């Protein structure tokens, strides 16, 4: 079991109102602008900050950092989100985030982008596939710090507890500031027993293979066969999450393996 690095009472203690005063936040997600998680998040953060919501018009789970609609344009309409309004973007999570930070910003900068609250955790290598996480990564591309927040499927449509955790963490983040090019990936289990700062390691499930089915007219349909990972790496966020810990993983925009810049020099002499 991983030992907690930071206690909940310390991490989520409220920052002074002055630390968060005048803050401006962009709220995004991948479950769609009509999802209850983004409404709960937006309403919780409106208590302290000016909030703009820009999210996909429909569910885009698993969209990663796709930007498929840039050439064709993005259709946008104003919709109700919780106690306020937001923008429904007919595009991916990353596109909604990018549009929110630019064309929908009213020409004013944002202090932080908050993505979520996602229905289902995004621990381990799920951060590569998650639209929730990668909407936050798009903020890093544009020089804005970000937090992605996901909660366990067991909560159903109840986002109240996670929204309050998000509010306190946002206040603390605004007061402390994140390093440039770094975001936080936060995952909230059922009945949290504390907080662990952990690296992204392991997976909760994996695609074990594909089952083929004749779909007629010469078409074969392949459906993924999902298997649970029963032994994730001990020193990672997946293992910590399974012990009931809220996990917080700092993710960097720069994915370069700096050590490998030296060790793969042979690639420049491959004869092409």
Features:
24% helix, 272 residues, nine-stranded mixed beta sheet, disordered N terminus, 11 strands, alpha/beta, 8 helices
Fold and architecture overview:
24% of the residues lie in helices and 28% in strands. It has 272 residues and is an alpha/beta fold. The strands form 2 sheets. It has a 9-stranded mixed β-sheet, sandwiched between helices. Strand 1, helix 3 and strand 2 form a beta-alpha-beta unit. Helix 3 packs across helix 6 and helix 4 packs parallel to helix 5.
Overall number of strands: 11
- Major β-sheet profile: 9 strands, mixed
The end-to-end span amounts to: 49 Å
Mean pLDDT across all amino acids: 91
Order of strands, main sheet, comes to: 3-4-2-1-5-6-7-11-8
Estimate the strand proportion: 25-35%
Count of DSSP helices?
Answer: 8
Structural class by secondary-structure content = alpha/beta
Describe the secondary-structure layout.
Blueprint: H1 8-11, H2 17-20, E1 24-28, H3 36-46, E2 50-56, E3 76-81, E4 84-89, H4 93-101, E5 112-119, H5 131-141, E6 146-151, H6 160-176, E7 182-188, E8 195-197, E9 205-216, E10 219-228, H7 237-242, E11 246-252, H8 260-263
Parallel strand pairs: 1-2, 1-5, 2-4, 5-6, 6-7, 8-11
Antiparallel strand pairs: 3-4, 7-11, 9-10
Helix pairs in contact: 3-6, 4-5
Quick gist of this model?
By secondary structure, this protein is α/β, with parallel strands linked by helices. Helices cover 24% and strands 28% of the residues.
